[in-house]
Structures are given as structure tokens and as C-alpha cells.
Amino acid sequence: MEYLDMYLIHIPLKTKSEVRGRAIGKDEISEMDVKGVWEMMENCKSLGLTKAIGVEMSASWHQKKLREFCKEKGIHVTAYSPLGAAGTSWGHNKIVESQLLSQIAHTKGKTTAQVALRWVYEQEVSMVTKSFNKERMRQNIDIFDWSLNEDELAKINQLPQHRAIVFANIFGPHVLVLDLDTQLNDPHL
What's the short name of a Pfam family annotated to this entry (predicted)? Predict the structure, then answer.
């Protein structure tokens, strides 16, 4: 491969072998230099090997500090599984079962999923969605010709947060994602 439009960090984690659709055991995790990986991604961008580099967020974990930090540093954020990824080993239904999102959806004549996706879009964040259902695919695209009002945005911003990933690297200097969050307050970054 010679070029990527977007080079995105999915999860700051390195496994010893490919892991799909199941929980990852501690014995499968390898040491990873998150800072070094990011520096190499920056190098790829400088060399013209990729148009954009970025990190991701989930609609159930707003990561406001991270988004502010990324905006300040020119880093794009992408929401991965913005609807919660129900049915996966790490997913949940908190978004599609949210009464607040359901109420807003009813008022707007939209689905709860559309309200969640529109909220992500209004945060100036791209998103990765997946569906094999044609109707849901249409619904996922039908979020661009309407908007959420200030009151709706404020209410969504107050929803309880749910972090799907709690660790970053059990072998590195930042075992928990909370350790990485603390760095966002470092004025030297």
C-alpha cells in the first residue's frame, strides 16, 4: 500500500495475534509505545503517505477534553460504533435505549439512532457506522437535512457517560485510559 486517505487509531492496544469478536485476555496483549506510534503517524502525514491522521470517540463517551485537545493540535476525531455496538463483547444498548434520545427522535420524526448520529455530526466529528439492513443504511444517511436545537444539544451533552475501553496498555506507562486523560491537562503538550 502506498497511500491512505485516513490513518486512524482504533484502540491504543497491541495484541500478539489477531483477535476478532471476543474479549482479549491479558496474556494476548503486547507492549506498545503509544507516543511512538503517534509520532510515526505524524511522520507518515509529513511524508504525504496519508492525507489525515486521527483518533476516535464514541457517542456514549463524549470525550470533550480529548476533542478540545485534538482540535487545538489539528487532530481529527472519528466516532467508532457511535450507536453502541450492541451484540458485540464490548458493546451496549445505552444509546439506542436512551429515553432522552427517544423523546427527541419522536419530536423530530426521526429514529433514536438518527438523533445519536446527528449529535456526533454536530460535534464536527466523522463516524464509522455499520449495517447490513438497507433501511437502516438509508436512515444512517438521512441525518444531514435537519439539526438539533440548542436545548436538545445541551440535554444530550448531560447524558451519563459510558466508557467502553478502560485500559490503554497494561505494559506501558499509561495502564488506564484515565492516565491518558490526565495528560490532556498538561500545558506542555
Answer: Aldo_ket_red
Rg for the chain, CA atoms, rounded: 18
The total of other beta-carbon atoms located within 10 Å of residue 98's CB is 21
pTM: 0.63
Residue 137 inside a domain? The answer is yes
Largest Cα–Cα distance in the chain?
49
In a domain, 68, yes or no: yes
Computed over every residue of the chain, the mean pLDDT equals 76
Q: How many domains does the chain have?
A: 1
**Distance (Å, rounded) from C-alpha 62 to C-alpha 179?**
17
* Pair 148, 156: CB distance under 8 Å: yes
Give pLDDT tens digits for 32-68.
676 777 788 889 989 999 887 776 555 556 677 777 8
Structural domain span for residue 15: 4-183
Residue 20: predicted pLDDT: 66
- Whether 56 is covered by a domain: the verdict is yes
